[in-house]
Design a protein that fits this description.
Belongs to the iron/ascorbate-dependent oxidoreductase family. This is Fe2OG dioxygenase domain-containing protein. One of its GO terms (molecular function) is oxidoreductase activity. The chain is α+β, with helices and mostly antiparallel strands. It has one domain: Jelly Rolls. It contains six helices and twelve strands. The strands form four sheets. A four-stranded mixed β-sheet has the order 4-5-12-9. It has a three-stranded mixed β-sheet with strand order 3-11-10, with no helix packed on it. The protein has a three-stranded antiparallel β-sheet with strand order 6-7-8. Helix 3 packs across helix 6 and helix 4 packs across helix 6. The longest helix has 27 residues. It is globular, with a radius of gyration of 20 Å.
Length: 277
């Protein structure tokens, strides 16, 4: 088998590009990717519970009864789950389809093209795996591309401004639309918490700090042995997740149990981050 392509990380470590690794017929999974957790997530996954679904158009309804019912659902979802699926979100379907297509196209670029967006020394932004701090650390079965998108002056000149067209234009529009959507959701959360007049939440997000992370999970011959993304909590305010296909993989932890998320068509999955919690 050919030597897998390595991606150099900002801290000096080099790790294999999983997408390139997965192109080969693997007799066995490399040991660094094998999850050694004594309680693997797949053992205790609950399938009969479903993440709450919030309809944005109902939230914004001029009918006070409809609006109040949906607002109560939002409050409960944030309080009890910290997650919900958002439908009728108002982001143009053609834009969302373009985002999916262009991201897929990026990951299908030749490796030498993607390597141009690799990490610089001392920086976590860019293409590759993240938070790898030692040669002994277990690796996720995924390739990632992470960058700050808002405010504009924080964009790294070798990343967003250098994205190939039309990906750059598509992501510019998507960034703007998600920023607007985030503020609407935060306003609704203020309303649910009865702090809307004081802008108790939105005032902390008015500068619009936004980061985007694109994750690619290649097929794996032994998926039960690997983890696509190590369990974690998101540190920010809101995470708005767009899944490019209907393959189930996301799991969330509620009441010490792991619950599989079945993504709805044309929906966003919203995660309330540590800052808001």
């Amino acid at each position: 088998m050919e030597t897998p392509t390595l991606i150099k990380l900002g801290n000096g470590l080099s790790v294999p590009c999983v997408q390139e690794l997965a192109k080969h017929t693997l007799a066995e999974i490399p040991s660094r990717y094998i999850c050694t957790d004594e309680n693997p997530l797949t053992v205790s996954v609950i399938d009969h519970e479903t993440v709450p679904v919030i309809d944005l158009q109902n939230l914004l309804s001029l009918d006070p009864v409809i609006g109040k019912l949906e607002l109560d659902k939002l409050h409960s979802a944030c309080k009890e789950w910290g997650f919900f699926q958002l439908v009728n979100h108002g982001v143009d379907t053609l834009l969302v389809d373009s985002v999916k297509s262009e991201i897929e196209g990026f990951f299908n670029l030749p490796m030498d093209e993607k390597a141009k967006y690799g990490h610089k020394d001392g920086d976590e932004e860019g293409f590759g795996q993240h938070f790898v701090v030692s040669e002994d650390q277990k690796l996720d079965w995924a390739d990632m591309f992470y960058m700050v998108t808002l405010p504009h002056h924080l964009r790294k000149p070798h990343l967003f401004p250098e994205l190939p067209l039309p990906l750059r234009e598509t992501m510019e529009s998507y960034s703007s639309e998600l920023n607007k959507l985030s503020m609407v959701l935060l306003e609704m959360m203020e309303k649910a918490l009865q702090v809307a007049e004081a802008k108790g939440i939105t005032k902390f997000f008015e500068d619009g700090f936004q980061q985007m992370r694109m994750n690619y999970y290649p097929p794996c011959p032994r998926p039960e042995l690997v983890t696509g993304l190590t369990s974690h909590s998101d540190f920010g305010g809101l995470t708005i997740l767009l899944q490019l296909n209907e393959v189930e993989g996301l799991q969330i932890k509620k009441d010490e149990r792991w619950i599989s998320v079945k993504p709805l068509p044309d929906a966003f999955i919203v995660n309330v981050g540590d800052v808001l919690e």
